[in-house]
Design a protein that fits this description.
Number of strands of chain B: 0
Number of helices of chain C: 25
Shape of chain B: globular
Mean pLDDT of chain C: 91
Distance between the termini of chain C: 65 Å
Helix content of chain C: 55-70%
Radius of gyration of chain B: 17 Å
Low-confidence stretches of chain C: none
Shape of chain C: globular
Order of helices and strands of chain B: HHHHHHH
Oligomer: heterotrimer
Radius of gyration of chain C: 26 Å
Strand order of the largest sheet of chain C: 2-3
Number of strands of chain C: 3
Order of helices and strands of chain C: HHHHHHHHHHHHHHHHHHHHHHEHEEHH
Low-confidence stretches of chain B: none
Chain lengths: 302, 213, 651
């Protein structure tokens, strides 16, 4: 019961901290002071109090985008175990629900983008959906490897850790899946090298251009949902990368927090040292992510 | 030892993917360089004991495959090549997928092949097969002459891995022969490429088909 | 009792078109009577089906209503009734005096014939019903027979369906050879050689695959679905092609013994190809109904993949795989019938209002037609397999089957089947892209052409059937437990010899799916209400869409469906062959110019048509033989006789 409480509390409160950490890391690499660590919280709170501007072409779909985006991220967050603790909702086959919840969020975000009738937002929606198509098989291959390793069909079981790690078979498979899921994580959360969240030219954006017309509270929900998605996918990746980390009550939570912040720092470092890919090579890298985890699966079941 | 051999072979397989997905010549050459160094390491690991001959062979492999040949190739890229892309015949994604299906087939069916499996890791035969396939794939689908040289190198690396299986029977004979052949081949190719590029200011093999009568 | 109800229902459907002919003079009278007949038939039929589930009726010499038949009978009764109601507004007798009567006659006949196929347990009854169904389909496709495109689509359908029928004749001939009777029962073990079984398997795949639209045999489907009236498309896509699936499922249960593992491999491969290529081709379409038609191929692919997992389960004696795979396939049959009918009806309502099927000429219909837009959006979410709607439940079952194939739990592993999971994920991702495109470009944004301006919401007769379908989509999505008894009965009827069959509800925790769906709906509701309040508090300004400061935006500048699909088309260029006609170099003062793109069907346009063209070229060189000269023909006969005499004499 206590763990469920902590889980929900973390899920609701922690997400905006991660972009803050990423921002600080990037500022450090650029030799700047950077915005305060809590800036994303201020941004979201301020957005919630602001007025809204709606385009005259929009319909109910325009508001459904942010709402469904956040709702799916929240529900997905309830399915993922945080640091080896049992997830609040867990049943055999929940990994499929997990994957499809993000697809649902994407459906409505992209539809909301098309609702404005702007060419830029249409372009962003097309790109986002294209790249997601290629990222999903990679995720499923990874899930297959984890299911086979743990002999379980729920996220809680699959990410519980404690697999026998052999150098020749299971460890390479797990490393491959971790590498593949890291690429998926970066692509799904629109980070460099797949997408640049800070770019200033509409033509080159992916996720940011889709939400160009949202404003006020709706935009606040989008930002909050995006950070929550980062945290949830990050939590999955952490357990793949450190499968056998202790899951002991308090230590488990502390390790989880440290791991999540560490992941944010790693993303910040990646964003600082890499340029973004040209748009045409992004599919190649996502297919490579697919092949990595597929290769992991073949190694495992051979 | 066995598990270490397998772990290194997984890396060798991944480098095949990297080579297949490389859009730039430099990436391609880097992949084959690392693969060469890993092969030297593999030689030392597979033998299991630190004899002088083993160390000499491993050292020679690392120096030749990991330093001399790559340096020549980088030099060629810097000096004579105008295009820095590998000029694939069809998309990189397609060649990656083909390579992946080749690897999967090698992994699944190598158990049924009539080769000596020995006791040096279960991945040797499939890794050798799929490396040979990847080499062929690069040879077939890249127009750029230096990319073709690299394809040939990867093909040879596959043969080298096969050689590990025969090490008990004919120690090092095959490797030595192959290495020598290879060195000469690269040398000759380097000269030819240089000549071609001086004459035609391009080393794309597409142009070679216009040399007929 | 129950079989009498079902048969009465089918009979009422069969005669439902006749009042239209009799009362042709009375404006809408005949049409209304037709709908009442069809509706009554469906109500009786559905009651009969449910009764048959509780008390299975004894099987007669010609007819049998078992669990599997009930699974397929329910959509046969539901969709045509809704289609008939919709048709009274969509294809009113007054607007179409020439072909309205014929349309209703064959609509009813096809419905009855489809029901006949599902309940037949004698080869002759099966074949007669099958052929009535196929021919009615032809007349429905060519409803507008003054249109050249419709005639061509009908002809292609007729050819393909008869290739299927030919294989079916061969199938039943071999069946009779083996069993000595035409009663359709499972063939006893040991009387058929493995080679014979292989032949029977392939014949079944081709015969029923032609009807179901499995990938290389799908060539008739896009054209036929696009040209037929929308409620006919809904019937064909929702139910007719499922009768092909029914045939395949049934044929597999008639074949004796343990199926070899490669059958499962063939089914999985066919399903994967249909699924991926179907959705990739759908993505490039610019005709709304062709797009939906290609999605039918994709969904048939998912169903066949589920069937493949079930066959693997049968081979390996793994009830887990069998139950999950078959349950996924059967439930997807229903779900696809529901959401595809919904999509065709709502697309039809948009087409009815604007008189164009070109996606790139539509736009912004959501404001003029809110109910239609809502129905289409819901259908789109459902067909993408997204929670909390019905498509998710069936895909989830197939996924579970694929994961179990890895050898998790007690299941014996056959790893290849696990590849179904990433392939389904790819299909799902592509379907989302395709339906965001279709929904977004047709219903959202601004109208792209003058046709859109006059659009008005359809009447209750058209919206009503859509809302019924919406209800069922939500019901199965939120409370999938209600369909478990029917699916269990279907699975039991399919796997007759399997000893340790378990109930679906013990393998898949459907209660959790309900919980997840309800939680999702509740979260959306709460957040939506919260957002609404915050927006009200903050104040709202209405303005134009941000367009980077461009001064004179027009609705033609919106992102089109073609451009939306272009980036994915480039990734999948190895499947999606396209023809582009681009404007050339412009002079200093450019003229008006046109840009056209067209997606080629990977089988029809790039394989079948060229093959036939070269065949025609070759055969036309033999034209001189047929000069139209009676003397020459007599000469041929005599020459042939002489050749025969010589041949016999020499022997």
């Amino acid at each position: 019961m206590r763990d469920v409480g902590i889980h929900i509390l973390l899920l609701l409160l922690l997400p905006p901290l991660l972009p803050g950490v990423i921002g600080k890391t990037k500022a450090f690499f650029a030799g700047r002071v950077g915005p305060p660590l809590l800036q994303p919280y201020y941004d979201i709170l301020k957005l919630m109090r602001k007025g809204s501007v709606f385009s005259v072409t929009t319909t109910w779909v325009f508001c459904a985008g942010p709402v469904v985006g956040l709702a799916t991220a929240l529900l997905a967050g309830l399915l993922v175990p945080f640091g080896g603790h049992r997830a609040p909702l867990s049943f055999p086959g929940d990994m499929i629900l997990f994957a499809y919840l993000f697809a649902l969020g994407r459906f409505f975000t992209a539809a909301a983008a098309l609702d404005t009738g702007s060419a830029f937002e249409g372009m962003g929606a097309a790109r986002e959906l294209t790249f997601a198509c290629l990222a999903e098989p990679a995720l499923l291959f990874g899930m297959l490897v984890l299911a086979k390793l743990s002999d379980s069909l729920s996220l809680t079981g699959m990410l519980a850790g404690g697999y026998p790690l052999e150098l020749g078979v299971t460890a390479p498979a797990l490393v491959l899946v971790a590498a593949s899921l890291f690429l998926v994580l970066l692509a799904e959360n629109s980070r460099i090298p797949f997408d640049d969240p800070n770019t200033h030219l509409e033509l080159t954006m992916i996720h940011e251009v889709m939400v160009l017309d949202h404003s006020g509270p709706a935009f606040g929900l989008i930002e909050y949902g995006a950070t929550m998605k980062l945290m949830v996918t990050g939590a999955v990746w952490l357990r793949v990368a450190m499968p056998n980390a202790a899951a002991d009550s308090w230590l488990g939570w502390i390790l989880f927090l440290a791991g999540l912040l560490g992941l944010a720092v790693v993303i910040g470092v990646v964003e600082s040292v890499m340029a973004r890919f040209r748009m045409v090579v992004v599919p190649t890298f996502l297919v490579a992510a697919c092949l990595l985890s597929a290769f992991g699966m073949v190694l495992l079941v051979r | 030892m066995q598990t270490w051999v397998d772990a290194v072979l997984v890396l060798v397989l991944l480098l095949n993917f990297m080579a297949l997905s490389a859009g730039r010549l430099r990436t391609l050459i880097r992949a084959v360089t690392v693969q060469g160094v890993l092969l030297g390491l593999l030689l030392a690991l597979a033998r299991g004991k630190w004899e002088l001959t083993v160390l000499v062979m491993a050292g020679a492999t690392v120096i030749l495959k990991g330093m001399v040949i790559p340096r020549m190739l980088f030099h060629a890229v810097r000096e004579v090549v105008i295009h820095r892309e590998t000029e694939p015949v069809f998309g990189l994604m397609a060649s990656m997928l083909l390579g992946a299906s080749g690897t999967v087939m090698a992994l699944l069916f190598s158990g049924t092949l009539p080769v000596v499996h020995g006791n040096i890791g279960s991945l040797v035969a499939p890794a050798a097969l799929s490396t040979v396939l990847a080499g062929f794939l690069i040879l077939m689908t890249r127009r750029e002459a230096i990319a073709q040289v690299v394809g040939y190198l990867i093909l040879e690396n596959g043969v080298f891995v096969f050689g590990l299986l025969l090490m008990e029977a004919i120690p090092f004979l095959i490797e030595l022969g192959v290495l020598l052949d290879l060195f000469v081949a690269i040398f000759v190719m380097g000269i030819i490429i240089h000549k071609i590029s001086r004459e035609y200011s391009s080393v794309s093999t597409r142009m070679l088909s216009e040399l007929k009568e | 009792m129950s079989s009498a109800l079902v048969l009465t229902g089918l009979l009422l459907h069969a005669v439902s078109g006749i009042p239209g002919w009799v009362f042709r003079g009375y404006r809408d009278g005949g049409q209304r009577l037709s709908v009442w007949l069809a509706g009554a038939g469906s109500v009786l039929g559905i009651i009969g089906c449910l009764a048959a589930l509780w008390h299975p009726p004894p099987s007669g010499p010609f007819l049998r209503i078992d669990g599997l038949a009930v699974v397929f009978l329910l959509p046969v009764f539901l969709i045509p009734a809704l289609g008939a109601i919709y048709g009274t507004a969509y294809w009113r007798q007054n607007d179409h005096p020439g072909n309205g009567c014929r349309l209703r006659l064959f609509f009813g006949l096809m419905t009855a014939a489809m029901g006949g196929v599902t309940v037949a347990c004698h080869a002759m009854v099966f074949l007669v019903a099958w052929e009535i169904m196929a021919l009615s389909g032809f007349f429905l496709i060519t409803t507008e027979d003054e249109d050249r495109v419709a005639r061509a689509a009908g002809l292609l359908y007729l050819i393909v369906t008869h290739i299927g029928t030919l294989c079916l004749f061969a199938w039943f001939a071999l069946f009779h050879l083996l069993t000595g009777s035409f009663a359709l029962e499972p063939i006893a073990d040991g009387i058929a050689s493995p080679a014979m079984l292989t032949v029977l398997f392939w014949l079944a795949v081709v015969a029923f695959g032609c009807k179901a639209g499995i990938m290389p045999l799908h060539i008739w489907l896009p054209g036929a679905h696009a040209t037929a009236p929308s409620h006919v498309s809904a019937l064909m896509s929702g139910v007719l092609i499922k009768i092909g699936v029914y045939g395949l499922v049934r044929a597999l249960s008639w074949l004796p013994g343990v199926p070899p593992l490669w059958w499962a491999g063939v089914l999985l491969a066919l399903g994967a190809v249909s699924g991926v290529v179907g959705v990739v081709l759908a993505l490039g379409q610019h005709d709304l109904k062709r797009l939906l038609a290609y999605h039918s191929i994709e969904n048939i692919g998912i169903i066949v993949m589920g069937l493949g997992i079930a066959v693997a389960g049968r081979t390996l004696h793994q009830p887990v795989l069998l139950v999950l795979g078959l349950a996924g396939a059967l439930l997807h049959v229903w779900n696809h019938a529901l959401f595809k009918a919904l999509l065709f009806l709502s697309a039809g309502s948009a087409i009815h209002a604007t008189h164009t099927r070109e996606i790139d000429r539509l736009g912004g219909l959501a404001r003029a037609m809110p109910w239609t837009a809502f129905s289409f959006a819901l259908g789109a979410v459902a067909i993408c397999g997204l929670p909390p709607l019905n498509g998710f439940v069936s895909e989830w079952l197939v996924y579970l089957g694929a994961f179990h194939a890895l050898g998790i739990g007690q299941a014996k592993s056959w790893v290849v089947a696990a590849l179904a999971a990433p392939i389904l994920a790819l299909i799902g991702g592509l379907a989302v892209a395709c339906f965001v495109k279709a929904f977004g470009v047709v219903f959202l944004g601004e109208g792209r052409s003058p046709e859109v301006c006059g659009a008005r919401e359809a009447g209750l007769l058209m919206v009503g059937p859509m809302l019924v379908l919406v209800f069922f989509c939500v019901l199965i999505g939120v409370a999938p437990i209600v369909v478990v008894p029917v699916l269990d009965a279907g699975i039991r009827a399919w796997a007759l010899g399997e000893p340790e069959l378990v109930s679906l509800s013990s393998l898949a925790r459907l209660g959790w799916i309900s919980l997840g769906a309800l939680a999702l709906l509740a979260l959306c509701g709460l957040l939506g209400a919260g957002l609404y309040r915050r927006i009200r508090c903050g104040g709202v300004v209405r303005s134009v869409t941000w367009d980077c400061g461009y001064a004179a935006p027009t609705s033609r500048m919106q992102y089109t469906a073609s451009s939306f699909a272009q980036i994915l088309g480039s990734v999948f260029a190895w499947v999606q062959r396209s023809q582009w006609r681009k404007p050339g170099t412009m002079p200093v003062f450019p003229d008006k110019t046109r840009f056209r793109g067209h997606i080629l069907d990977v089988v029809l346009d790039t394989t079948v048509k060229p093959a036939f063209r070269s065949a025609v070229r070759f055969l036309s060189s033999l034209r001189f033989l047929q000069a139209g000269n009676i003397h020459a023909y007599l000469f041929y006969i005599v020459a042939f006789l002489i050749v025969l005499l010589l041949w016999k004499g020499a022997a």
